[in-house]
Amino acid sequence: MENIPDNWVVVKVGENLYKVLAGWSGGYLTSDSWKLNSGISEVKDDGDHWLFIGESGSVYKCRKGGYGTRLNNYGILKQLLEIDGTELMDGKTDWMKLL
Question: What's the structural domain count of the chain?
Answer without folding.
Answer: 1
